[in-house]
């Protein structure tokens, strides 16, 4: 595993510095046009073939599908294989979650109004909901944020569960649309940079939603924070020393393959805690938030945050699956 193999897909969300436009938080809506087109292909129990998906979904697709296609959908053949292997995943999303989207309009507008008050200079992106290849709940580009419904619905399809998931995505992915190209920073310090990319998005999402991202992960991590930071620092050095080190996958891009006893994406939580500490110590909180979004100096942010200096692992706490 070289740096190039995992940096490119992980940094796709934040490699643009010019945003195509902004939406009005009072009138923004959830655009599910492409999702509805996909749903038509699965009416009456149908499982669409590649030709059906090409003609009825990928051809003439809107912005959301165009953004999702290069890395996530790839092409009609790949999408057809995934749908054929997991048709119930898509049927559940069509049946249980697609009809709930209109009810989430007020949540989206409330989150966008909160962002407009917190960071008024930042443009707010349109929201596109699509069906992907079962490998991404959301992504962001300079044009829009895009949500993969079959993945977000699988996290919980009841109105309460789905609302919590979608509120988190609305807020988290919005932050990604603002983040600039940090490829050089990631090459210099891969784990710290990735932790801050995702952790800053979770931190700002927690402010505008009033909800802690991934409550189970948060509880698990807080119970062993000092040990977890110690492990992160050790793995960070290993990745710095060896681009092929597998230790990056302990913290990121590990859906379904997280270490035994760990939640997925524990690195997000580390980045969120650094971001919290950085803003807490800053005299100008909004300026600090903008510095976190720009992420020009990840090491400088860590040092200025003071995070980790007073953490001392408790005896026996946290020693879970450290491959």
How is the largest sheet built, in terms of strand order? Answer: 1-2-4-3
Please report the number of helical segments: 16
Distance between the termini: 17 Å
- Residues in helix, %: 55-70%
> Roughly what is the average pLDDT, rounded to an integer?
89
The count of domains is 2
Query: What spatial form do the alpha-carbon principal axes imply?
Result: globular
Sheet of most strands: 4 strands, mixed
| SSE-based structural type | mainly alpha
Radius of gyration: 20 Å
Strand content: under 5%
Give the beta-strand count.
4
* SSE series: HEHHHHHHEEEHHHHHHHHH
Layout: helices, strands, pairs:
Elements: H1 3-11, E1 30-31, H2 33-41, H3 50-58, H4 63-73, H5 76-85, H6 87-97, H7 105-118, E2 127-130, E3 138-140, E4 145-148, H8 149-154, H9 159-178, H10 183-188, H11 190-209, H12 215-222, H13 225-241, H14 266-281, H15 285-294, H16 298-305
Parallel strand pairs: 1-2, 2-4
Antiparallel strand pairs: 3-4
Helix pairs in contact: 2-3, 3-5, 7-9, 9-11, 11-14, 14-15, 14-16
Key traits:
mainly alpha, 16 helices, disordered N terminus
Characterization of the model:
This protein has helices at residues 3-11, 33-41, 50-58, 63-73, 76-85, 87-97, 105-118, 149-154, 159-178, 183-188, 190-209, 215-222, 225-241, 266-281, 285-294, 298-305, and strands spanning 30-31, 127-130, 138-140, 145-148. The chain is mainly alpha-helical. It has 2 domains: 10-181, no CATH class; 184-305, no CATH class. Mean pLDDT is 89; it is low at 1-20.
Summarize, please:
This protein has 323 residues and is mainly α.
């Amino acid at each position: 595993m070289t740096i190039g193999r995992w940096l490119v897909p992980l940094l796709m969300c934040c490699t643009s510095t010019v945003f195509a436009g902004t939406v009005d938080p009072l009138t923004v809506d959830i655009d599910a046009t492409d999702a509805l087109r996909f749903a038509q292909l699965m009416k009456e129990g149908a499982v669409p073939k590649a030709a059906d998906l090409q003609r009825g979904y990928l051809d003439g697709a809107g912005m959301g599908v165009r953004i999702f296609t290069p890395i996530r959908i790839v092409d009609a053949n790949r999408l057809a294989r995934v749908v054929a292997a997991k048709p119930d995943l898509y049927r559940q999303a069509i049946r249980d979650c697609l009809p709930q989207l209109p009810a989430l309009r007020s949540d989206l507008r409330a989150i966008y109004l909160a962002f407009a008050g917190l960071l008024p200079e930042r443009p707010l992106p349109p929201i596109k909901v699509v069906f992907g290849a079962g490998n991404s709940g959301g992504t962001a580009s300079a044009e829009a944020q895009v949500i993969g419904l079959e993945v977000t619905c699988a996290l919980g399809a009841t109105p309460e569960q789905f609302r919590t998931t979608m509120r988190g995505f609305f807020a988290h992915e919005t932050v990604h649309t603002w983040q600039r190209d940090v490829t050089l920073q990631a090459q210099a310090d891969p784990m710290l940079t990735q932790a801050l990319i995702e952790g800053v998005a979770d931190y700002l999402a927690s402010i505008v939603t009033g909800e802690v991202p991934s409550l189970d992960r948060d509880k698990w991590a807080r119970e062993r924070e000092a040990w977890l930071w110690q492990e992160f620092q050790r793995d960070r050095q290993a990745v710095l020393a060896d681009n092929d080190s597998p230790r990056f996958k302990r913290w990121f891009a590990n859906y379904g393959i997280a270490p035994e006893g760990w939640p997925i994406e524990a690195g997000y939580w580390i980045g969120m805690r650094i971001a919290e500490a950085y803003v807490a110590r800053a005299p100008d909180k909004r300026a600090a938030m903008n510095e976190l979004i720009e992420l020009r100096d990840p090491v400088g942010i860590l040092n200025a945050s003071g995070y980790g200096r007073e953490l001392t692992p408790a005896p026996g706490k946290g020693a879970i699956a450290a491959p």
